[in-house]
Specification:
Layout lengths: L2 H13 L3 H4 L5 E6 L4 H6 L10 E4 L16 E6 H8 L2 H19 L4 H14 L1
Parallel strand pairs: 1-3
Antiparallel strand pairs: 2-3
Amino acid sequence: MERERFERLVTEAIEGLPQEFRERLENIAVVVQDWPTRAQLASVGLRRRGELLGLYEGIPLTREGERHAMAVPDKITIFQKPIEMMYRSDRGIVRGIAETVHHEIAHHFGINDARLSEIARRKRKEV
């Protein structure tokens, strides 16, 4: 997929969030990168670059006391090539982008991976 379209889909995933969430996305940069770096992989305990679809780097809103006015922006990186490898079809890639963006934004709101997995399990049971 061309980078421009991929980035547009990332933007659409963010814009599709409920307004109360979008309003709280202050001081946060969302970027697209082809692959994670070794340092990014190591930061989450992974070795293979195809395993990491997105990464949140920052101070979650639940740790507000640790945030300060001069803080650098939080950063969400969405990795294009791993998403394309995992989801393959155009429709799948669109879904993968949305899921990854929502997952990383959840980290910004202080939701950890264990809680996200629990939420996903409940959601699957409801379907």
